[in-house]
Structure formats: C-alpha cells, structure tokens
Amino acid sequence: VLESTTGTEVRAFNAHSAVQSEPIFVDGNVIFCDEGGYTFNYSTDGDQSVWEHFGGAPITSQPKLIDGNVIVSSVDDSVYSLDATNGTVSWRYNHPPSLTRETELTLYGAPSAVSWQDSVIAGFSDGSIVSISSDSGEVEWQKVVGEGVYPDIIATPIVNGDNIYTGGFEGPFVALNPNSNTIRWSLDIGTASQPTYEDNVIFHGGSDGVLRKIDTITGQVIWEWDADIEGSLTTPRITSAGIITSSTEETIYLIDGSTGSEIWQYQTDLRLSGMSSPISVG
Fold this sequence. Notes:
By secondary structure, the protein is mostly beta strands. Helices cover 0% and strands 42% of the residues.
C-alpha cells in the first residue's frame, strides 16, 4: 500500500510467492492470490492475515467475488469457492483432462471465473467452458470452444446479458448463448487476453498480434489493425483518445477506435520480463 501523492509505503501484505494478479476488496479487506497456490485475506489497515487458504496449484488470475464467495481459478484446471469471511471451502470443481487434446502440453495460466445469473462460468485448458452452480458447485452444462494444439481458455470471458464471449488461445472466438448452450457466431482468431466490450462492439486483442473491432450482433469484423509482431496483445482499453493496448514485445499502441488506424506507439529501451494491460487517467 502506497500513499498516493508521495509514493511512501504505508503497509505491506505478505504472500508466500510472487503475486501475479490484481487483488479484490471485500468489506474493508483485501483478498489476493499468489503463484504458490495461496489465497490471502488481510484487513486493509492491518498486517496480519484474517485467513489464508492453500489450493494446491499456482494461481495467476484475479479472484472474483460471486454471491458472497471468493471464486479462485488455478492452473491445474481447478475452480473453488471460498467463504469470504473465514476462507473455508464451499465447493471445488476439478475439470477432468480431455482425451482428445492434440498435445499433453498446456499453457501456464487460467482465466478468472465470471458470473452469469446464479452460475459461475469457468474456462479450462482443453478449451471447455463450464457452467457451475454458485451454490452447490454442481456442473450445469459444458461446451467445448477451443480448438487446435492449444485450445486453452486463458482469457477471462465477457458476459453481457445472455451472451458469453470467449475463445481458445488458438481459436476460435465465439458468442455463446448459455440458455441454449449454442454458438451464435464464431471467428477463426485466437484469444490471449480478455477483450473489451462497449455498446454492441468488442475490441479483441488477438494471440496473433492483431487488434479487431467486432460487431457483437453479427460477429462481423468491422476493422483490424496488425501490430506486426510475433507475440500477443493485451486487453484493449477504451479512452477518450482512442483504444490503447500493449504487446508481449514491450510496445504500447494507441489506435483510432473508429478507423483502426495507428495514432502512435511507444517502445521502451529497457528489457522487460512481461507487459500488463495499460490503464488511463484523464
């Protein structure tokens, strides 16, 4: 915790390993996960943990608060629900491995779970999207979305109304109707980071380094802009100046949201070990 105007350290919360994802805040407490497989709950004005839970596998995605419980996704294809007040396990779902996957290798990562009605929507390394009852942890339905050698769902899905927008790392990217468990439209593009939704439009940063503006009604690609890189793009952010995104090759881009033309790019001279999605202020 840093004082916002001076940068002075106010407080620190100890973890057992690297913290790779954003915290969440619940009733005056901060909850976060680490790569060691632990979830922590600290009071924001103290340095002793209220509770901690060991899940057994690294956690790289943000935990989510759904119906009063903390939902955690780990890289071993497990999703579990923790009571936010005491950290006890309400339920745990271990996704069985797919026998049809083309390779035994999986990508190191897992998407955050999202909420739809009374359900938890989770994605897994075999390309499956699974709906789980937020109360009981029972599986309600499952849909295989991802395809190819790397079908892994590693980008957090978007839920808007009765539509779930999600995709595998190699593709496709789909609009899924959870009521009928059917796919409305599908695009042959890979998804590495969570897309951004606004007013029936999705800005999608692809695992192929291409930013696309997609009509969510028809699935039509309105425009696409190619970063001309070998890596992936991070989550696009909508700003008054344009669409800002970054790449795994350490460059930040500003793209005109109407035309898809590049306004500027910035590349640091420093060698970075990773790139997060940028945010904007003003």
